[in-house]
Amino acid sequence: MKKPLLGLLLVLPLLVSAQQKIKSKASAPQKQEDILYSKPLSLQLQAGTQGVGADLRYGLFKRLSLRAGASFIPVSKDNLITLPGFKSDNTASINFYNAHLLADFVPFKGMRGFRLVGGAAYLYKASGALAVTPVGNYTYGNSTYTPADIGTLNMDVSWKGIAPYAGIGLFKSFPNHFFNFNLDLGTYYLTQPSTHVVGTGVLSPNNQLEPQFNDNLKEYRWLPVIQLNFNFRLK
User: Which pTM was predicted?
Assistant: First the structure.
């Protein structure tokens, strides 16, 4: 009987030590690597060159996360340009509305503050426009023309369609606790633009400028993105 009792006394300290180690590991705070394995979810509010918007960001794997969202930028400015010798009211506008799906990949282990970002957006509204309306009467020789006689001029350009995206991300995708911020630097590659020129009255011959207008803008297919993101952890 003494030998079994002696063996139990020898083993008991080992069991207690093992139990303490298990408890210590269970109560220790999770590292960022472990957090990514728990598939975190955050709400991202954003502002930048593609406007304002929001994303849901989901940690799919340790070094890979996905985000889906939308952004928009409606801008309109009156009398932005001055036409020499021609008094007019003009309005220039830019409208970009997109829904996007992006993936963030951490290429270097231990550098979670640097990410490669790729994906695409569907631009369901991506346009620029200029509308020109004459002001006052104009006299040419013996003829006087009213604004109604001169007419109006409208020039429109559209990049509506699917646009691939490539860029980099700076700072961590997910906050360690509740909140963090990060940056996106990249560009969308837009579809080849389509243009439209419509003039009325005396300005109607400007309709013939549409092919040249389209040719001048055909290379304008890059939409740079500089974006600040505010992330709020949901889980």
Answer: 0.77
